[in-house]
Structure formats: C-alpha cells, structure tokens
Amino acid sequence: MTPPKIVVLGTGGTLAGSAANAADNLGYQAGQIGIAQLLAGIPGLRDLPLATEDVARIDSKDMGFEVWRSLALRCAHWLAQDDVAGIVVGHGTDTLEETAFFLHSVLGPAKPVVVTCAMRPASALAPDGPQNLVDAIAVAATAGARGVVAVCAGTVHAALDVAKQHTYRLDAFTSGDAGPIGYVEERRVRLVRPWPGEERLPAVLERLPAVVRWPRVEIVTSHAGASGAVVEALVAQGVDGLVVAATGNGTVHHELETALLAARERGVRVLRASRCAQGLVQSTAHDWLPHAGGLSPVKARIVLLLELLP
Ligand code: SIN
Known about the structure:
single chain, 310 residues, alpha/beta, Rossmann fold, 8 helices
C-alpha cells in the first residue's frame, strides 16, 4: 500500500530566496525558487511521497488577503483528500505567525498543516531552509499530528503562540510563556505538550471564495505622546476595525483612548492587544474597550478581520 502523501505548498520567502553572492545572507531576493526545485535539491526526500504546488512566490512582508485566501483554499482542498497525511507550507519568516494564525482560525484542521521558513537564502553557504523543510515534512508525517504549527530550527510552535523574536538568528521564533509544542530530532517529534485543538471559526472558510471587499482593519500604537490624530484620519477614510497595540496590561494613552471610543461610537470595531512580547492582557474594572487576551496586535487584527468578513 502506498503511504499517504505530504503536500508541500510554496509561497516564497527567504526559504526560496537567492543572492548573487553565496556569502551574503541579507542582500538576496526572496521568493525566487519554486518549491519543487527546492525539494529536489535535498538528499533523502526524493523517495518520499510528496506533491508540490506554488501558491505564490513573494517576500512575506507583502503577504495579503488574496494569497491568504488561495492558500487556505488549497490547504482545504488537499486536506480533504484521503491519501494526504498533512501539508507543509513554505513561507517567509516576517509574517509567518500571521499566516499560521489565519490558517489556524479558518481551517482548525484534524490533519497537520506545518508552516516552515528559513532565515538564510537558498543560495547561502549554509542555508537553514533544507533542514527546516526536512523537519517540517517529518512533523507533517507524524502519526497523531494535527492543527496548524510552525517549524523552525528544530522547534515546533503552535500557530496560536508563535512569534518572530529575532531579526537575524536561525532560531528566530518563540512561543512565549506557552513554550513550544515539541522538538524535531532526527526526523522524530519529541512532544512536550499536546497538538493544537481542531476548533476553527464557523463558516469562515466557506465564505472566503465570495469575498470581494476585505474589511479594512488597521493597527494603531499607544506610546508616549500618542494622540487621536491617526484614528481620526482612519475613521474619515472609512476604516472598519482598529486594533490598538496598547502598553502593558492593555492600557491606552488617554488622548488615543478618547479617539478610539469616538470611533466605536461611529461603528468602528475596536480591540486592544498588548505591545508586550510576553504575557496576556488581564481584565480590569476599567475596561472601556475589549481586549484580545494573549494575542499579539497582528493576530488580534486577524480576529477582527475575520469577524468583520461579509
Ligand atoms: C520573508 O519574510 O519573506 C523574507 C524574510 C524571511 O523569510 O526571513
């Protein structure tokens, strides 16, 4: 009997990046090489039952709704096939946590969807992408694996918790207080906590194909000297939702808060998330605006985006 296959979807990133000089880890162009070509260069993968597809070839700083929609729909297509054990998504590191959280929210899959990446381009003297791809494929093929996870530098992170924490190191991601789900060692997963649950937002996936106008949700930051000017300008432009990257336990400069409350009066959805890299916003008796618990501002933005979807 043929073993179930792993589908590897490419979206670009440094993983697929190329520089003119092999010693240059920064002066490269992301998203240059197709996913099939990347895998063909990795010894030991050739005999595995893999299928490949390029969904996009972009630098993930340019990630947006259209690629997210295509990616979610391709994942859903492949996950529904009986002969598919799991999916690997090749992605840039810069917005990996956003894409992983988006897929987690719309798919909540019973099979594994493993998002992986690289900090060095494929052309580097010692690229990290091949090992990350091998590890991600091992995770996707692991019996009992499920949910959307990220794999980088031998560590498995839940989509809910993962965040990029370093601009340069190969081990660029953290799961914060929650800690990783596990580690990949010689193609075996050592779990230290359970796989993510299968829950997903009801009916969002089904609505994605028909979306013509995506809600506009922006992030504003509370900081020393903040004012309401940015919020007022965004409301004048017809923004649908605002996430405030708040200080500490979700506190907001009083001028910005006044503008946000006025925006809410005008029908704009507002959500607070903390600027702090760790911890969660705890409710208090003075919560005039709802908060997103432990979600970072970029993930809270996805929550609002999906809630506001037509
Ligand atoms: C990107 O996010 O596409 C470029 C940076 C990276 O992958 O590390």
